[in-house]
Inverse folding.
């Protein structure tokens, strides 16, 4: 375990040190002339019209939900794929049933129009 | 006496030294590739559009990436008054770090032999060989999404928020397609370790001597999976024609609208680092990794550069997708095709046995 994950830890340290270091450096040597207009949110040079706490389309939530469902499917598929040759035809039929059940759900979602973005 | 693979237990000192050396080399080479990918991209796209590209800084504009970096270093670091400061600062780091961490599991060359204290060790040219290598890469790709969400929310600006949300929906949709497209590879390789996957691609195609002119690369046995991976990989890292998060005609600059100075540079570097990572994963999974006629790391770099050149070429060729087309492609075409490919591969393998 340790010998496999130690290099990952070191690399995480180096990557974050690089990121933090470059931001801190630029903070130190960059110029600082803040003004109220400069610190305002970008609005194409116009005065700010409305707050950012705006509503956005429900479709993004649906996409996130579908992602979770199908990602779980992918999680089940990975260990199965590795064992596939050893499980043989039994494993193939088992996973076939699983995929068909998910496919029914996918077709339902499709027919209900959750994947339409036009309207 | 056959040489044994170097581990922490059989030689702690040499293991630590080799580990640090490999990490430093991999990290430095990636940063150099990232810096010069920007130069190559501008040169190549310039030539493709009958322009010169950068010419003024150094011979043939070769010092351009350094000049750009220095310029951004000296720029003012603006944190908007409305922004959530901590999340605003954390976001670019959350995007850059996973992109670099992914290179840890990619084998960039064959084993080298090294004799130390009279014992010969095999040192694999790979920072670490995790047995869950691909899952690790997918996890890091998932972490990158957090950075984009944070950048969109923390900036407290309309364009950032819209860009962040769009980008998140795009990335999770295509993460799914990318994740499912490579499942068929693991049905053939029976391993998630990238070292084993490269080893499984040695020899002639399907192990048949009659096909010895073709290597046993998964691009030949899994052409559909390769196509799906190329498309969803490019969408995953927001390359043209999938660069909707930064569609400047509608969203200014997407989730990095409010960023300036080195924080903006981190987003920029993350984009190119992701490009390197995806090219390296593609080369490892489908193009035989470091196998080839030259010294093994050279083979690997040639494949990575070819994949990166392909992405630049695509950028010079295709216009941007519309958002509904993007989601339709991801959910209605790539996802069913990936599932169909898994079933098809399953049938083929069972019939073959």
């Amino acid at each position: 375990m340790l010998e496999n994950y130690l290099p990952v830890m070191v690399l995480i340290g180096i990557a974050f040190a690089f990121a933090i270091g470059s931001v801190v450096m630029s903070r130190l040597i960059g110029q600082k002339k803040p003004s109220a207009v400069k610190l305002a949110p970008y609005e194409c040079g116009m005065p700010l019209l409305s707050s950012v706490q705006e509503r956005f389309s429900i479709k993004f939530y649906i996409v996130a939900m579908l992602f979770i469902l199908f990602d779980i499917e992918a999680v089940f598929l990975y260990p199965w794929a590795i064992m596939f040759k050893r499980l043989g035809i039994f494993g193939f039929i088992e996973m076939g049933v699983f995929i068909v059940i998910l496919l029914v759900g996918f077709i339902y979602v499709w027919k209900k129009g959750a994947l339409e973005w036009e309207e | 006496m056959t040489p044994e693979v170097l581990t922490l237990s059989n030689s702690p000192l040499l293991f630590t030294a080799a580990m640090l050396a490999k990490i430093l080399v991999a990290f430095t080479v990636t940063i150099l590739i990232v810096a010069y990918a920007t130069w190559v991209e501008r040169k190549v796209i310039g030539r493709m559009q009958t322009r010169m590209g950068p010419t003024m800084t150094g011979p043939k504009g070769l010092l351009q990436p350094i000049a750009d970096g220095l310029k951004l270093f000296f720029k003012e670091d603006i944190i908007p008054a409305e922004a959530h400061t901590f999340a605003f600062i954390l976001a670019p780091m959350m995007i850059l770090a996973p992109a670099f961490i992914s290179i840890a599991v990619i084998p960039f060359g064959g084993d080298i032999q090294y004799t130390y204290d009279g014992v010969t060790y095999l040192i694999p040219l790979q920072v670490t060989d995790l047995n869950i290598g691909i899952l690790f890469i997918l996890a890091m790709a998932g972490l990158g999404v957090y950075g984009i969400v944070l950048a969109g929310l923390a900036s407290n600006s309309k364009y950032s928020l819209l860009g962040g949300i769009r980008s998140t929906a795009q990335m999770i949709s295509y993460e799914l397609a990318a994740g499912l497209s490579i499942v068929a590879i693991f049905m053939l390789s029976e391993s998630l370790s990238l070292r084993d996957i490269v080893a499984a691609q040695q020899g002639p195609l399907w192990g048949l001597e009659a096909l010895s002119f073709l290597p046993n690369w998964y691009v030949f046995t899994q052409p559909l999976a390769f196509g799906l991976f190329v498309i969803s990989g490019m969408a995953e890292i927001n390359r043209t024609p999938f660069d909707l998060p930064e569609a400047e005609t509608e969203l200014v600059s997407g989730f990095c609208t409010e960023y300036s100075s080195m924080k903006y540079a981190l987003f920029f570097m993350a984009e190119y680092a992701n490009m390197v990572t995806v090219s390296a994963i593609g080369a490892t999974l489908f193009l035989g990794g470091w196998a080839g006629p030259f010294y093994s790391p050279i083979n690997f770099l040639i494949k990575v550069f070819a994949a990166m050149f392909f992405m630049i070429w695509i950028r010079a060729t295709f216009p941007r997708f519309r958002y509904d087309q993007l989601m339709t492609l991801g959910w209605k075409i790539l996802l069913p095709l990936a599932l169909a490919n898994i079933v098809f591969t399953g049938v083929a393998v069972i019939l073959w046995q």
